[in-house]
Specification:
By secondary structure, the protein is mainly alpha-helical. It has helices at about 5-10, 25-35, 50-60, 150-180; strands at about 75-80, 100, 110, 130-135. Bound molecules: iron/sulfur cluster (SF4) (3 copies).
Length: about 180
């Protein structure tokens, strides 16, 4: 049986797109589920056959085909925003795990394709459906996929900023409650 201590080693073999296609809220929860024998090793479409083989070698398990319920292994993709239709609502910014979209409220947004992992998490929140996916190889200037280590670094920074914003929100809320509870004389 796999030991929990393997979770970090398993995590290190995952692509770090945080796409959730494995059915978990990111690569780390999936790694922990594998380590706890709660998930098989064949649920990561971005990693595909190579990741399954690496996991099988690490854990001394049988190589399995990718579970089709999670998706298919395909060529690396990147998101593209149709600038003529973007309304600058900024709803695509928070879901991007690696902060690969730039723009501000009421301004046109663009994808930094060098950083885009193709996770597709920005597509559903767009109210005007102006984000689509295209093969990375079609974009001549950005044919190199970002490395897993770089994806993880950007995700950690993204999460740290998100937690900081949440702490600040809760602090302001507590301050406001205190003012309401103690009206000035
Ligand atoms: S990259 Fe793989 S392990 Fe990470 S969230 Fe996506 S499917 Fe899950
Ligand atoms: S731009 Fe979209 S597809 Fe690309 S990494 Fe960000 S959320 Fe994922
Ligand atoms: S969610 Fe869509 S419309 Fe809104 S800023 Fe992003 S790309 Fe533009």
């Amino acid at each position: 049986m796999t030991m929990l201590a393997d979770a970090a080693a398993i995590h290190a073999l995952l692509p770090q797109t945080q796409c959730t296609r494995c059915g978990y809220q990111g690569c780390k929860p999936y790694a922990e589920a594998i380590a706890n024998d709660q998930a098989p090793i064949n649920r990561c479409p971005p990693g595909g056959a190579a990741t399954i083989e690496n996991l099988a070698r690490l854990l001394d398990r049988e190589v399995l085909p990718l579970d089709p319920e999670c998706g298919r292994e395909g060529p690396p993709m990147v998101a593209i925003i149709d600038e003529s239709r973007c309304i600058g609502c900024a709803r695509c910014l928070p879901p991007c795990p690696v902060d690969a979209i730039v723009g501000a409220q009421r301004q046109m947004h663009v994808v930094l394709v060098d950083l885009c992992t193709g996770c597709e998490l920005c597509i559903a929140p767009c109210p005007v459906d102006c984000i689509s996916m295209t093969p990375r190889s079609d974009i001549s200037s950005a044919n190199t996929e970002p490395l897993a280590a770089s994806n993880l670094q950007r995700y950690d920074a993204h999460e740290a900023r998100r937690h900081e914003r949440e702490r600040e929100r809760l602090r302001l809320l507590a301050e406001r409650k205190q003012r309401v509870a103690k009206p000035s004389a």
